[in-house]
Specification:
It is built from two helices and no strands. It has 59 residues and is an all-alpha fold.
Length: 59
């Protein structure tokens, strides 16, 4: 096996991995978990703001 063939095989492996990742990311079954992860930062900020407001009200 020469260097050109090896580079071609590595390119095919990388292309296959890329396609697998794209299919996994855009799978409809994964949409709800990705939406939950995307919105989780807003839930944490809301909880922190309410806890800060509660402590400020007690002062």
């Amino acid at each position: 096996m020469d260097y050109g063939t090896l580079r071609g095989l590595i390119a095919l492996v990388i292309l296959a991995l890329f396609l697998i990742i794209v299919v996994w990311a855009f799978n409809k079954k994964r949409k709800s978990s990705f939406d939950d992860a995307a919105n989780s930062i807003f839930e944490n900020e809301h909880n922190e703001k309410t806890s800060k407001q509660e402590t400020n009200n007690n002062v």
